[in-house]
Amino acid sequence: MIATPAHEIPLDIRRKAVAVHEAGHALVALLHKRNVTGAALHPPHGLSGETRFEGASELVLDLNAKADRHFIEDAIVILLAGQIAEAHYWKKLAPLYIPRIDSHRTDDAEIHALRSHFALGPEQNAMLMGYCTDKASRLVLNANAQAAIDEIAATLFDTLSIGRPALDEILARHDVVEGKLRVARHPWGRRV
Questions:
Q1: DSSP string covering 94-118
Q2: pTM of the predicted model as reported, rounded to 2 decimal places
Q3: Are 82 and 107 in contact (CB under 8 A)?
Q4: How far is CA 24 from CA 120, 145, 160, 187, in A?
Q5: Bigger pLDDT: 49 or 8?
Q6: 3-state DSSP call for residue 31?
Q7: pLDDT at 19 (0 to 100)
Q8: Is the peptide bond before 44 cis (omega within 30 degrees of 0)?
Q9: Contacts of residue 14, Cβ cutoff 8 Å, sequence gap at least 6
């Protein structure tokens, strides 16, 4: 399959992909009880974006603390959620476009930095990433979550930003709550 160059994909289609990507991050971050303040697409065209967190400064983590290890694992899931949501969007458009997605570079770099805290061997690293990808997929691809992601993305597409109150309303409207979508933790290998 030949990738479709970005300039051949209409601007509104690419903008919607970024909106879906950020909606995936925001939804899964909220499910993980992170202090999300909102999400935004960057002007002028909305071809990049960010999910915003309160107090998102440098964290000092103790890998001997179970809660901190889970925090890192959940952060990887949140990062993967944006990629999975966006991939699902593009899959629906596959008959028209096969994009060369480069919007994941920043997420991939953050995932790499988070994984490096664990100092895992190749097999354990593959298990971690498999588990995190599966968990993010289950959360993002749930029917209720998909409806919420679509609504969040539509708001982002139209206004370039969405705040926490609107995110909370959308999740409530689509019955996206922690207990209904969360998947159980799975030990993916030796913890450091």
A1: TTT--B---TTHHHHHHHHHHHHTT
A2: 0.87
A3: yes
A4: 27, 9, 15, 24
A5: 49
A6: helix
A7: 97
A8: yes
A9: 6, 47, 99
What tokens appear for 136 in the block?
A: 């993010």
Helices assigned H by DSSP within the chain: 11-31, 66-92, 105-116, 122-140, 143-159, 164-173, 178-181
If pLDDT is split at 50, 70 and 90, which confidence band does 167 have? very high
Give residue 188's pLDDT.
45
Range from 26-35, 48-57, 60-69, 177-186 carrying the lowest mean pLDDT: 177-186
Q: How far is CA 9 from the centre of its chain?
A: 22
Q: If we measure between CA atoms, which residue out of 60, 33, 32, 72 comes closest to residue 192?
A: 72
Only one residue has tokens 């629906």, namely: 92
The answer to whether 156 and 162 are in contact (CB under 8 A) is yes
Query: CA–CA separation, 170 vs 179, rounded Å?
Result: 16
